[in-house]
Structure formats: structure tokens, C-alpha cells
Structures
1.
Amino acid sequence: MIIDPITFFIVAACLVFFALFSMARIGLGPTAGDRVVGLDTLNTLVVSAMVVLGAAFDQVIFIDVAIIYALLSFVGTLYIARYLERGL
Amino acid sequence: MLATLITAGVAFVFYLLLTFGSGTVGVWSIEELITGAVLSLVAGLVAGRVAVRREGGERGHPLRMLNPLRILLFLVYLVGPFLFAMAKANLDVAYRVITGKIRPGIVRLTPGLSTDFGVTLLANSITLTPGTLSVDVDEENRDLYVHWINVTDPEPSTKAVCGSFPDWARRIAE
Amino acid sequence: MHIFLYVLFGIGVAFNGLGALALIRFPDVYTRLHGATKCTTFGSIFTAVAVIVYGFARGGTTYQTLAIHAIIALLALLITNPTGSHAIARASYRSGIKPKGAVVDKLEDRS
């Protein structure tokens, strides 16, 4: 053990707590643009929380899932942006 | 053909990184090596034409980014001026979140870059550095429309908004 | 070594929190994008670098694999985050959301 494993859990809990803020923005946001901003932030926070949890549980597969999640959420963001721009 | 091979090579490097420590040939197992070679060839065949192509006159040679000097310059840029500007940007945002002092506006910049990769690099750098966010690109003459959080001058020079970044982008990508 | 990792995690969490706060506090889409993109990208760099340092410091194949995968996750975030925010900004502008309280708007003159 290099550092206390509880650190990872505290960091991940903080990140999930911040994700609640972006969920609030998704719920409140007056325009569609605001909601997409909230979603984008939520994705970033979830990816970094997954990387930290992967280190906490010593599971490499968590980080693999984080990579795929980052790339797929990017495609999702682009798709929503394109939809806002000119419809399907 | 060349585009296919370059894309396949890059894909294979990523596959090797992801399967690090899986066996005894070096640190990879022979099955992973074969699967990786086949899959990256498929990826190269499918995506090569999109990923590598000639653009923007004589400066846009498709092989220019394989030059090790450019890659080295890119890494120096990432850990040097870029990281510094990003730290400054975050402190700037912290200041504006706490005081709520903003004066937003959208201004037009003419960086004078001629390749797609250069403009992409500059636009992404602008998004991550102090007070600016790229909103739109003029496809014809590659002008950038930038949302600036603290407008001091409605017709600013490129230097006033993004400092030395256009020079770096030109050195790296053109 | 301990202290270094704790500092990295601390900076990362602080900037991620700042990004989330900016999302609540700023008045319109563009300024929110400023806060959200910059701060969460910077914070994620620090938490990911902490995990990478941890992996290489523990040693052994499993932990090295963990560190290398974390590097690739960090690369994916670094490339996709600003691009995604640019796409959102452009889509918001073209779908008719004007920047609130804008002093100057050059893009309006064009279209």
C-alpha cells in the first residue's frame, strides 16, 4: 500500500457529489444547450471517477470501460449537437 | 495505400498499449499480436481515407506529422506553454466564479493558418486557455469566431486574445 | 511520495468542484461551457495523473497495465473534451441562443 485506499473512495465520492450539480443543471437548464452542457460535464466526471475507482479496486477493466465510455459519450455529444443544429 | 498503412500503424500501437503484459513475446502474447495486426489492418482499410489526406496547398503534405521533429515540438508545446496557460485559465475561471465579474462577447480572429489540423489544434487550445471558447469556424478563409469572457476591445488582434498559440500551431502543423 | 499523490488528488478534486460550481453559477450556455470544460478537463488531468503515478509506483505487471490504460483514458478525455464543447457552442449558436449581455457579437453580422 503506497497510500491509504480510503483516499480513492473519498475522491470518487467527491466526484459523484459534483455530478449531482451537473444533474441539477440537466434538470433546471432553461434551454436545450444548457442541458447538453450538463450532460457533457457529467460524462467527464463519471470517466474520472471510473479511473479512480479502477485504481481503488485494482481492476483494469474499470479503466477500459472508462475509455470506451469517454469515446462513446463524445459521439453522443456530437450527435445531440448536430441534432440541435439542423434537426435529424 | 499509404493512408491505410499509416492508420493501421497507429491503430496497432494503441492495440499494443492496451494489451500490455498479456504474454511472453516481449510482454505480449502471440495471439494478441496476430489479432491486433488483423484488426488494425481492417481499421486502416476502413478509416484510412478519412484519417490521412492531402489538404490546403503545398503545406498540407499528408506525411508531415510523421516527422519526429514535429512530434517532439508538439510534446514540448503540451507540457510547456499549454499546461501553463491552462493553469492560468483555471485560476481565471475561479476568480470569475467567485466575483461574478464577466463582460462576454463574440469576436473574430484571423490566425492565418491554412491546414485543417492546424486550425483544429488552435481551436482546441483556445477552448482550454484563459477566457476564450471557440464557437464557429469560417470554412473558407479559416477565421475563428471566439467567445471571449472579458472583452476589452471589440476588434482585437490575434495576439491580444491567444498570445503565441498561432505561432506554435503553425510550427507544429504546417 | 504519499504527500505528492495526496496533493495531486486534492488539486484534481478542487478543480472538478470548481467546474461543477461554475455550471450552477454562470448565467448562460457559453459562460457555463467556459467553466465546465476548462475546470473539469484540468481536474481530470490531475486525478488521472495521480492514478498513473500510483500505478507505476506500485510496480508489477498489473499496476503497470493500470497506469498505461489510465494514460489512454486521459488522452481520450483530452482530445474529446474541447472538441465536444466546440460542437455544443456552435450548435447552441446556430439553434438561436444568443450570448446573454454580450458587449459585441461579430457572428451575428455574418449570418
Note: Chain C has one domain: 2-95.
2.
Amino acid sequence: MTLKKDLKTPIDINWCPGCGNFGIWKAFSDAAVEKGWDNTNTVLAAGIGCHGHIVNFIKLTSFEGLHGRAIPLACGIKMANSRLNVFVFTGDGDCLAEGGNHFINGARRNHDITIILHDNAIYGLTTGQASPRSPKNKKTKSTPDGNHDEPIDPLRLALSAGATFLGRVYAGQPKELKEMMIAANEHKGFSVVQILQPCVTFDKLYTHQYFRENIYQLGNDYDFTSREAAFAKTFEWGEKKIPVGIFYKVDEPTNESQISQIQQKPLIKLPLKRNLSKLLAKYK
Amino acid sequence: MGWFNKNNKAEIKIKKSEDTEKFISPNFCFKIGGEAGFGIMSAGVTFSKIASRSGYYVFDYAEYPSIIRGGHNVMQTSISSEPIRSQLRHTDLLVALNQETIDLHKDELLENSGIIFDNEKDMKLEGIPKGVSEFGIPINKIARDIGGSEIMRNTAALGAVMAVLGGKIGHLKDLITEEFSNKKPEIIEKNHLVCQAGYDYALEHYKDKVKNVLKQKPKLPSQIVISGSEAVALGALTAGLQFVAIYPMTPISGILHALALYQEEYKFIYKQPEDEICAVNMAIGASFAGARAMTATSGGGFCLMAEGYGLAGISETPIVIIEGMRGGPATGLPTWTEQGDLRFVLHAHQSEFPRIVLAAGDIEEAYHFTAKAFNLADKYQTPVVVLTDKQINESHMGVKAFNTSDYNIDRGKMFLTKDENYKRYELTSDGISPRSIPGVGNHFVANSDEHTEIGYSDEEAKNRLEQMNKRMSKLDTCAKMDMEKPVLYGPNKADITIVSWGSNKGAILDAIKEFNNVNFLHITWMNPFPSEVVGNILSSAKFVLNIECNYTGQMASLIKEKTGYEVNESFLKIDGRPIYAEEIVEKIRKLL
């Protein structure tokens, strides 16, 4: 059992007041308490950006790696110990710019890990440059004349790459966010949770108010097993038409389920000492 | 002043000097050449194994361009009744499966050498030195008529080779059976018939010219024929490798080929990553979770790994990295050898962190250093690089089968019990902190940011000093506890002391056999560096000749940096070809 107090660390939270990261942090803590995620069964990997600080505020064993490289770290962790719940905390710059190749290939291999994508559509930690999620024509410190580039849709990208669970939630929906994190972790395969997370300091467009006004919940009539339906949904964006909820969920063999040597025991429990005489004989 | 070979042709052209003659006996050099796709490499390795099974020492060496079909491939095997560790410049028997092989290699033939060629094809033998025995064999016709496909031309040629060298055809047939054990029995049978036909044709037509080079001798006990890449793979398996991610790259792809095949049998994971950045980070993740982890690459891939190298350093995550050097920057000379990455692996990544760097000198050291690297990585919780090069990775040598059961797995300060006061980066006198893994119940953060003893991000000056000092002091501990002295080969007192590192070892050892007044210091620990021993040996030497395959003399400058000693002369080679013993003999003769 995990209690709220078990997750507390002595480190003061250093996100800006009102930052969407608070909602993510609280929802994840609530999910951990509800599901009993603790240091015997759960591990976190994070990249670099405002999101990455979360490892200092949740008392769960973590690896804060390099900018953009949390996904390969998590893949390695999961293959070494497939019994662990493995979460990746990443940002839109971390995941889609610096780490784009790992996001695509991690999805393609369908590792059984959960990607918590803090999407604030801006570079917060480096004080306000455009990110791969910044809308076209947006003025930022790095795009003073307006952004020339089209934003990436991370769910569409992950869908085409082979991810098997795709969800989107706004950071100000604590209950939905907690449930989405639990569902994503329980899904066997590469799960992406895109969290619309306002940056209250450097972005005046994607504010809390903007998302409150413009998101809508995918209804019961939406078929999340349809790849085509999910693909179509990823094109919806803008006033009153930002869908949230589970976009896509299908069962496919995971990377880890296809590695026969770890089906009985996790890799780290397998013997290190081997009799290699048969192999040596091949070189005679 | 260095010695640079600017002209490839000059490299191939050999002088029939006294130096060359010295190497003819008791050594014999077999060479087979043809287009890429003709099965040259597999024929070469087969020949090496035949020679080994016939009771001889062997060393082989391949040259090929970076393409799959077309282009000139050549593989040569030196065989000897005495240990041999390098390739030779001359050729005693040349097997030419195409005209280009004759044109490019005829100058390597000596009087009394032989050439096997296809006498049904219009092959031109002009310019072959006088006295060379010509063995015309209808190689393609035999392959086509008896085997049903020209693809078996290398088998037909090897059959003829067995005849003219007085070898046992049974060795070749055994190897064919082993090689094709997963294929249909007809394939084995056809290949047997083809090699027998090549053998019979050669005996029938050239019986009087047979040389008993491969005459069966008592078998060398437990000799195996293995490449450096295969030796690395075996070293890793011996050491208890559990996770390995390698992006394919010459010259280290042989490591992944050797490993991927056995992952189910020996219960470890090989994963092909999308790039070297992923490779190193995956391995770091697996190691953080408790697995013994490795990656391998060449210089270009190591450029991408530089970032993860430092991550392993600051997060104190054990990892073994094999860096198999090849020629040139960027894509450079992809299939050729060089020793240009010593300074790179010693300095790659920003700022400073403890790194252990070893350089293997031959295939046996590639095995032992790889195995050792796993213990060092776990013990010092830091990245360990083993430098090899194409000459080591892709050559095969006859070596005594490795004693894999002697290895003791040392996981270092593993801490696998639950403790509320556990500190991952606890300050300790030897710099090494207790290492726990996820799942045990201990909370900690492995952190790329500077961090506290728990692992929380922290930028306070006092903490930075403590953690930096702790990490760097691991190198002092390693120097005291584990660093090995370099070996001085040859007489204690000498007129010339050669200092070198890496794969030059083989050619240097073969060369100094010719002298009783030349010795050789082979350096294998690059960081930490055995400054005192190296300084003492070199400063008391009469004349020091440094030998390296790079432009700037990276080892000479490292020696100067670490010991203050400046070598008398450097012999440097940068054309992608390995150093030949003959070149070293010539150099020594000039200096003496």
C-alpha cells in the first residue's frame, strides 16, 4: 500500500505557481496511492525540461537522464526488469525535438512502457522558445516574426509509428488524468498520454482558460479500436474542438512479450555464470 | 619524424630483400581474392581452420571495400609451425578467382610461390614473376557442372588448394558439413563433390608440384580460430553479460552477429537500437535496473555515444563500451584499420568524469579485457571503454581456447536489501557508494544533474565539490587496486625499445624475433595510466621508437603528458593498412 506521505520528498517544488505540472504531479501521486505504486514495483525515467524536475518531488526510484533520451533509458529498464511499472516523464521539446527518433522507434517496438508527455507547446525551462508543438505563426523568443513551422501532433506520430495506447488529457482534469495514467500503465504496450499543460509564464495562448473552453470528451460512440478513427481525430484542433480521452487502444504483442528468455523470470534474475564449452567448440 | 605511406601501390609492392626472405620460412602465406559476393571471406576463414586443424598456428587478415557486390575482396592467412600474430607482405599461394586478383597481387609472389587461377576463363598471367608455379584449374566449370552453380567456385578452389598444399581433403569436407549443418543434406553433398573434383583435378595435373605445406602435424591442443569480434562476444558472455544493444557498424558488427544468435540459449538480450544514442542509453537503463550491460561501436557511432558516456559517468552507472577503431573522420575508411581514437575516448564528453580506458593488443586481449571490463564497470560504477580496431575485430587468430570457468564475477558494492537510510551517492573513502537497483524498495534518483547523496538535483557549491571529488577519487582507487603494469617483451636490456599499443602488438612481436637487442613495451591501460612504470622503463632505455597507426602520435603525446618523457622517434602509419612485421624489421635495421 502506498500512502500520500510515502511519496513526499524533502525537496521544495520549483514550478511556477499555476503551472500545469502541478496537476500532472498530483494526478500521478493519486494514481500511485490508488494502485500501490511504490519502490518495489515502479520506476520513473525523465528527460530534461520543467517536467523532469518531477523526479525530485515524488519519492519513487527514478532516473533523470539526458535531454530527449528518457525513452531509451526506460526501454533498457523494462527489458532488464519487466516486472516493474515503467513511466517516462517527458516534454514536447524533450520527446518530439531532441528525442523524436526514440519516440518513433520506441512506439514501433511497442515496449511496455507509459509515456507521460507534458505538452506545453513551448520551451519553458530555457525561457520561452518555440517547441515542435508551438502553433504556426506564433511569436516566441526564437520566432520573433512568427513560427514558420507546422506543429507535430504527437498522437498522430505515435499512431503511425505503432504505439498501441494513445490518450489525451488536459492537466486541469485531475480525475480524468489519474484514470488515464492508470489505464495507460495497465495497457500492455507503448502507451502515450499527451497532457495539455499550460505554461503560465511563457505562453499566453494555451492557457488554462483556453483548454477549459475548447476541450471536449470523446464520447461512448467513439471507437478507440479503430486506427482510422483515431487518425481522423488527431486532425481536430482549435476552438471547441480539441478531443480528450482515449484515442486508440489495441492489443498487440509487446517487445517484452516476444523475448522468450524473460517470460519466466525477469532478465536480472537469470544466472550470470554460463557453460560456454559448446560455443567454444564452434570455433575449432 | 613520422613515416607516411602516401601511395597504396607502394604498400602492396614488396621488396624482395633479405628482410622479406626472413619471413618466408617457417611462415607460409595463403591468399584468396575475388569479387565481393564470391565467398572470399568464408573461404579464407575455412582455410585458417583447416590449417589450425592440420596442426599449425594461423593468423588471417581481410581487405575489402565498403560494398556488398563487386569490388575487390581479399583474405590472407599466415600459417606457421611457430606462433604467428600478424599478416605477411608476400604471398606463397595466390588463389585468383578473378583477373583483378592477379593484377593487384602478382607483385607479392616470390620465386617458388604458386598461383591457382581459372584456366577455362581468359585470365592473363602477364607479369607473374619467374619461377612461380601456375596451377590452372577449371574452377567455374567444376562448380557449375558438378555443383550446379558457380556460387560453389570457392569450394572448388579450396579443393584444389588442399591438393597442391598436400593437405587432408577430409578437413575441408568436415568444415563444409559444419558450416551447412542447418541446410539441406544435398547442399552439403554437392559441396563435397565440388571440392573433391577440384582436389582430383589438381592432383591429376600437378602431382609433381605439390608442396607439403599443410601436411598433418600433431594437433595443437585446444586451439580455436576466432576473430576479435567473436572474442569480445565470448568475453562478454564469460563475464555474465545480460543486456547488449549494438547498432551495426564496421568493424564491430561481428560482435552483434556472434551474440544475437545465442541470446536464447545463454539467456541474455541483444536489442538492435535505432541509433548509437539509443544503444548507449538503453544499456545504461538496463544497467541501472541491475543488468550487466554493454554496447559496441566504431568511432563514428561513439560520436553519438559521447553524450551517454558522460551520463554513465555522473549517474555512476556501470557500462562497458567496445570502441573498434577504423580509418578516418566522418565515414572515412570504413573497412580499414587505424588507431586514431585514443585521444577521443580519453576526452569525449564535456567537463570531467572518471572513465576507465583499456586498449586490447590482440584477439586474446580482446577476450580478457572485455571480460575484465564488466568487473571494473561494476566495481567502479562508471563507464569502461575497451579500444580495439578493425585489425583485431576482423582478423582471426589461432589461440588456445579461453578458460571461461576461471572468471570470477564481481558485482562490486551491490546493495540489495531495503534500508530506510539508503544513500545511492553516499560519500565514502574510496569514492565508491553502495549501489541499489529499482524494485528492491530503496528510494534513490540516478541523476544527470549534479545531485545529493540521495540523488536529488542540487547545485550547492559544497555538494558539487563533495560529489565531484567522490567520483573522481574512484580512479585513484582503481589505479591502486586494479591497474596493470604494461608488459615489456624481449630482453631487459636493448639497443632499441619499441613502445606501442593496440593491434601493432602482433607485427611488433613477429618482427622483434629477428633481433636479440630490441625489446617492446606494450601499453594497455590508457586511463588510469601507469605513468611511473612507463616513465621508468622509457627513461632508462637507450633509444625509444614509438609505433602507431595515426597521424599525430597520440600515444607519444600521452606518454609525454603523463611522464614528461619524449620518445626519440615515431613510426606512424595512416593509410588504413595495418603495420607489417617486414616494415618494422626494415625500420629497425635502419636505426641500428
Note: The CA atoms of residues 164 and 252 of chain A lie 7 Å apart.
